[in-house]
Amino acid sequence: MNPASQGAPAGRIGMMGCLMDNLSMEETLQRVEGFIASGQPHQHVVVNVDKLVKASRDPELRRIINECALINVDGMPVVWAARLLGRPIKERVAGVDLFEALMRRAAEKGWRVFLLGAREEVVAGVKQAYAHKYRGLTIAGYRNGYWTPEEEPAVVEQIAAARADLLFVAISSPKKEHFLGQYQARMKIPFAMGVGGTFDVAVGKVKRAPVWMQKSGLEWFYRFLQEPRRMFRRYFIEDMAFIGLFLKEALRREIPPTR
Fold first, then answer.
1. Model's pTM, two decimal places?
2. Which of 3, 25, 92, 125 maximizes the CB count within 10 A of its CB?
3. 215 in a domain, yes or no?
């Protein structure tokens, strides 16, 4: 049975079939520090419109999300929906912002980092850029995000052998969630996080929206303007199912009146 239908654990919100941690950025960073101190593997995921739509159609993805040690909300439409449903979220914790904060903290605390995903020139560029940006940062290893099923065991062994504290995975959803769900225990990384297109942003291949657009919930539209052909189907066809998910959730709850 879906955990979100049974009542979320303390500090978590259940919405549209998925659980979410109601944490600020600073609270999230403190939680990650605890994970790394424990030395035990923990999986992180961000929930946004696209992830909720995919999870509504993929029971295995929904299970993986709900069993993650840390589930942040990355997407203003999800924040707004939670507020309308009477379950306000403290803060949007964007994956790209959390990645930046953790890379900075890794340099300060001596945490080892492994970078996985994107094209070879992109992931190599992230390694070079952050090694220069944060002196003392240890990149324990990196690899591009393209491999065959036959190569997958070797990829897992490469990551495990690096003995990293943080693993950032920049491959598409739901592939990255399934990859981490299957191999996280074997890789033994204290904190593994999917970062989507963050590597492309980090090397300047993709520009991030201005702050006012981020705060207004229009970051997705800025992304669409940069790659309209690639992003049209996701934003204007697939993600429209989010409206139906919200309405279905609203019918199950009594939405409190707005003030």
1. 0.87
2. 92
3. no
